[in-house]
Design brief:
- GO terms for molecular function: G protein-coupled receptor activity.
- It is a multi-pass membrane protein.
- One of its GO terms (cellular component) is plasma membrane.
- This is G-protein coupled receptors family 1 profile domain-containing protein.
- InterPro entries: GPCR_Rhodpsn, GPCR_Rhodpsn_7TM.
- The chain is an all-alpha fold.
- The protein has one domain: Rhodopsin 7-helix transmembrane proteins (Rhopdopsin 7-helix transmembrane proteins), CATH 1.20.1070.10.
- 76% of the residues lie in helices and 0% in strands.
- It has 13 helices and no strands.
- Helix 4 packs parallel to helix 11 and helix 6 packs antiparallel against helix 7.
- It is globular, with a radius of gyration of 24 Å.
- The two termini are 22 Å apart.
């Protein structure tokens, strides 16, 4: 894991240095694509589906992530390693969901940004950060499960919360630093009133798109496929699990990879296409490619938001044990609301409730704590 993080830092800073050396050449290449940047794109074609999609994601994702933050926080207090990654993932998704109304309004207004340029940059900054922090945290979740299941005995001394916290902090810092150039872009200005629209390719942006495709999509996809396949093989070979449990693990492993592909493959494939076409002057001089790719591009951005709504359902709330304990907790809260203290021994009553609450919390979100017999979350 440490070697991987060092490699990410190396690639990031090498790319920054490489991009700086081509600033003058970038100006020339930008002039070639002026025609494409002035294309009259069909901004209203994606309005209805995107606004509906953003609204559904917000309605489902907001309460689901709030519940998940509570559940994973309880798990973190129980010193569970996987809870660190899941809590960070939910907090990241919640921050992004708070910016979703602004994106929905922007699309509904025909891609006219009504707020300040800084608001556009901050919103875009959180969007890109959320996407790649989520992707890397998903890799951490799968890797942690892989180690806990395949190397259950050997990993007991290695899987520690301090290491999980350190990995999460490094991921957040690297992604934050990588997207700082967002604040130097001419986005959300008063004249254009556009916010991170395509058709503004430069050599730096093209190189950044290549890096995002390889580091932010292709490499994580390999990690997810390899780890989930190994988990599935280990579980299928286990004699301590029932067939229904093995089937459930198989469905979960497949769902993780499919969700990743559905949410992130369209966007990154289009990024790759845009990067490749930047080197073809013939396509840069006309609007044909931009007009054809624009609606799929915006819809792919919408698909990437599905990740924020499905993550808590797939990774946390899909657990039978968690649902049972969550129902127990809700019943306890309802019972506490209907039973008010009627005597002078209210302090003893509160102590009794506190004890029951801690017992409920201790049973919620038992994620990857045991070895191969507990891989359902």
């Amino acid at each position: 894991m440490r070697k991987t993080l060092k490699m990410l830092f190396f690639i990031f800073f090498v790319f920054e240095d490489h991009a700086g050396k081509y600033t003058m050449h970038e100006t020339t290449m930008t002039q070639i694509s002026v025609a494409a940047t002035n294309c009259n794109l069909t901004y209203f074609d994606d309005r209805v589906p995107l606004v509906v999609l953003y609204s559904v994601v917000l309605i489902i994702g907001l309460p689901a992530n709030i519940i998940t933050v509570y559940l994973t926080f309880l798990q973190v207090r129980r010193k569970n390693v996987l809870g660190i990654y899941l809590l960070s993932l939910s907090v990241c998704d919640l921050i992004y969901l708070c910016t979703l109304p602004m994106w929905a309004d922007y699309v509904n207004m025909g891609h006219q940004w009504r707020w300040s340029s800084m608001a556009c940059k901050v919103t875009g900054y959180f969007f890109f950060n959320n996407m790649y922090i989520s992707i890397f945290l998903l890799c951490c979740v799968s890797s942690d499960r892989y180690v806990a299941v395949v190397y259950a005995v050997e990993s007991r001394g290695l899987r520690q919360q301090r290491l999980a916290v350190a990995v999460t902090v490094v991921i957040v810092l690297v992604v934050f630093m990588g997207h700082v150039p967002v604040f130097t872009m001419m986005e959300g200005n008063v004249v254009e009133k556009k916010c991170f629209e395509p058709g503004q390719s430069t050599l730096t942006v093209t190189g950044f798109n290549y890096a995002r495709f390889i580091i932010g999509f292709l490499a994580p996809l390999v990690v997810l496929v390899v780890t989930n396949r190994a988990i599935l093989a280990s579980v299928q070979a286990s004699t301590g699990l029932q067939p229904c449990q093995k089937e459930r693990v198989r469905y979960l492993a497949i769902a993780v990879v499919i969700l990743f592909l559905v949410c992130f493959a369209p966007y990154h494939i289009i990024l790759l296409l845009r990067a490749v076409t930047f080197h073809i002057p013939k396509l840069q001089k006309t609007c044909d490619f931009e007009e054809r790719i624009y609606t799929p591009y915006t819809l792919s951005l919408g698909l990437s938001t599905l990740n924020s709504a499905i993550n808590p359902i797939l990774y946390v709330l899909s657990s039978d044990n968690i649902r049972k304990e969550l129902r127990r907790g809700l019943k306890y809260l309802r019972g506490r609301a209907t039973l008010q203290p009627r005597s002078t021994d209210s302090s003893q009553h509160k102590m009794h409730n506190s004890k029951n609450s801690s017992e409920v919390a201790a049973a919620i979100l038992d994620v990857a704590k045991h070895d191969r017999g507990r891989v359902g979350v």
